[in-house]
Amino acid sequence: MKIDINVDMGESFGRYILGDDESLMPYVTSANIATGFHAGDPLVLERTIKWAKEYGVAVGAHLGLPDRQGFGRRQMDISTEELRTDTLYQLGAMDAFLKVHGLKMQHVKPHGILYRMVGEQEKYIDTFLDTIEEYNKDLYIMLHTGCETLKRAQARGLKTAPEVLIDLGYDQNGNWMLERVKKARSPQDVADRAVVVVKEKKIDTIDGKMIHVDGCTVCIHGDSPNAVSVAKAVRNSLESNGISVTNLDGYFSK
């Protein structure tokens, strides 16, 4: 048994600090680093990439809507052309820093409401996949397990990384619950959920039921008040249960 642990990072801006990214690095295997639209700035982007390199953490682009005030969690009626160019712009910005530091981008993951837009809304699905395929077909596309976008990506022969968001609530239909402001959760409760996700492929819902989930990576949100404690508990619980923690390339290697 093995699993990737991904965490949203690089979301500070100027003098405003959000999350303790360096302290998270020892416990995770994939970093979703903000590319400057919903959060982050060039200094934060490079600093977070340097930490990822130091700790051996794989790097992915955490794409967002141009909505810093709403932290990328407010719906915006962007056109498909804007989705394409905004995506390329953000991927290119990250790749510049990765090139300088001798790293390669592992994956791409939308942030906040953009995650829902490209994962669920018919208007955006194919444009998003077209753009990733055109830019770099070797990128893993990280979205919620079972979503229509991942099914279409797999049909195209693109790499996919279905994830389970272990520090968010789920409804009975398997939809995760978007939080405008992240809440602190019990580190051990989140860790226990992670173990169940890997060993039983199930997660609990807000109404007390268990639903099927099948992912290769589990997500922790770096902007939660106790993210470091959660990440530490998750990694320790996984490894103490005989579950190997690895990045996406390690997960899919034979």
Automatic annotation (TrEMBL):
UniProt-listed Gene3D superfamilies: Glycoside hydrolase/deacetylase (3.20.20.370)
The organism's place on the tree of life at top rank: Bacteria
An example Gene Ontology biological process: carbohydrate metabolic process
Pfam family of the protein (one): LamB_YcsF
InterPro entries for this protein: Glyco_hydro/deAcase_b/a-brl, LamB/YcsF/PxpA-like
UniProt-listed PANTHER family: 5-OXOPROLINASE SUBUNIT A, UNCHARACTERIZED PROTEIN YBGL-RELATED
NCBIfam families: PRK05406.1-3, PRK05406.1-5
The name this protein goes by in its record: LamB/YcsF family protein
Species annotation: Acetobacterium bakii
